[in-house]
């Protein structure tokens, strides 16, 4: 309105032509250019993704609980019956949907940061694989985009390989969320689910495990590359038991997406975080990113910073049903060396300095 008045007042006569011109200029200014529309779409996709994975399960749990006490109780009863019959499906291969993995919204998700997937070696489809994903970051955004969607072209880069990102088993106990997660190829990060994928679904499967887990997210800060790996040997034992090759991957830029409030070691709040993580499998991080309306405000949306996920050279692993601790340590060290090689070969290409180092705890 102020702009209309200003434009109108330039002509003392206040003719109809002047007023019409002012209104036309306002309409032209109000119509966002194509780039602005694209940015808005990217932002909306990011917001829906965050709310989906953080709140969808709880929201539908409350909805079904509420419906039980209304005349629509049959809806909740029917879904509960289905849930009980389908309880084991997430650990028995899930229900992968290529249609969901190829949704066009994932391209907007990819372009917001942007995210890219870099292939360094072939993964022959005649083998199965365990891909170690590093670092965890706050929300594993790089791992999700590259291994749960086709927006970065995983199937084109690694033909014949079906990725299955492993995540907390508790997510698959939440109504509706479990269906959504299975459709993208996610599976519970436990021995039963991983063992089924590597032994009962033929060849060409790649289980993606974020090795550092929730504990690693507590040290997530921009510019910090600290991994929890030295004490994590379960994934190596699984690889030996099922004869799956070990493949390191590193998402450069993953830790730059959020700022986190850090508590000093030994403080009550840090001890509480560690205790919570041991009990429930995830850590309550206190983090923030950009706001919804302005990039320079604080909010829950990740910063728009590039992520490059580099998939490294596979470590060939034999099948040993009951590997000794010495054999597990041997292949754990081989995997660690392959990961360090990948990091140092690519760090300067994707935003890190020549002197950047990888801290492995």
From TrEMBL:
Gene Ontology cellular component annotations, sorted alphabetically: endoplasmic reticulum membrane
Single GO molecular function: O-acyltransferase activity
EC code(s) of this entry: 2.3.1.-
Keyword Lipid biosynthesis belongs to the record: yes
Compartment(s) where it occurs, according to its Swiss-Prot or TrEMBL record: Endoplasmic reticulum membrane
GO biological process, alphabetically ordered: glycerol metabolic process; lipid metabolic process
Topology of this chain in the membrane: Multi-pass membrane protein
Catalytic EC class: transferase
Domain of life of the source: Eukaryota
Pathway: Glycerolipid metabolism; triacylglycerol biosynthesis
Family according to the record: Belongs to the diacylglycerol acyltransferase family.
Name of the protein described by the UniProt record: Acyltransferase
Organism of origin: Pyxicephalus adspersus
């Amino acid at each position: 309105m102020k702009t209309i008045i200003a434009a109108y007042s330039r002509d003392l006569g206040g003719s109809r032509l002047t007023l019409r011109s002012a209104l036309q200029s306002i309409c032209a200014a109000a119509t966002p250019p194509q780039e602005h529309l694209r940015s808005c779409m990217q932002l909306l996709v990011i917001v829906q993704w965050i709310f989906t994975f953080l709140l969808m399960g709880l929201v539908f749990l409350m909805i079904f609980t509420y419906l039980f006490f209304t005349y629509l109780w049959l809806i909740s009863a029917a879904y509960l019956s289905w849930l009980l019959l389908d309880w084991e499906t997430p650990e028995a291969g899930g229900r992968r949907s290529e249609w969901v993995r190829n949704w066009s919204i994932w391209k907007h998700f990819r372009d917001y940061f942007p995210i890219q997937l870099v292939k360094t070696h072939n993964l022959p489809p005649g083998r199965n694989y365990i891909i170690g994903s590093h670092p965890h970051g706050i929300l594993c955004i790089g791992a999700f985009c590259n291994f749960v969607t086709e927006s970065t072209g995983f199937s084109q880069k690694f033909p014949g390989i079906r990725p299955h990102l492993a995540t907390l088993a508790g997510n698959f106990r939440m109504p509706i969320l479990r269906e959504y997660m299975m459709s993208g190829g996610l599976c519970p990060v436990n021995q039963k689910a991983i063992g089924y994928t590597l032994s009962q679904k033929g060849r060409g499967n790649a289980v993606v495990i974020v090795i550092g887990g929730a504990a690693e997210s507590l040290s997530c800060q921009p510019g910090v590359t600290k991994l929890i790996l030295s004490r994590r040997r379960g994934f190596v034992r699984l690889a030996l038991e099922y004869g799956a090759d070990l493949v390191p991957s590193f998402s450069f830029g993953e830790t730059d997406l959020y700022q986190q409030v850090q508590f000093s070691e030994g403080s009550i709040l840090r001890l509480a975080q560690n205790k919570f993580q041991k009990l429930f499998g995830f850590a309550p991080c206190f983090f923030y990113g950009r706001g919804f309306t302005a990039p320079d405000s604080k909010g829950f949306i990740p910063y728009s910073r590039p992520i490059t996920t580099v998939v490294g050279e596979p470590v060939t692993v034999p099948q040993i049903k009951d590997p000794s601790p010495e054999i597990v340590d041997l292949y754990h060290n081989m995997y660690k060396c392959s990961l360090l090689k990948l990091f140092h070969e690519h760090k300067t290409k994707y935003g890190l300095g020549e002197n950047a180092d990888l801290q492995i705890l």
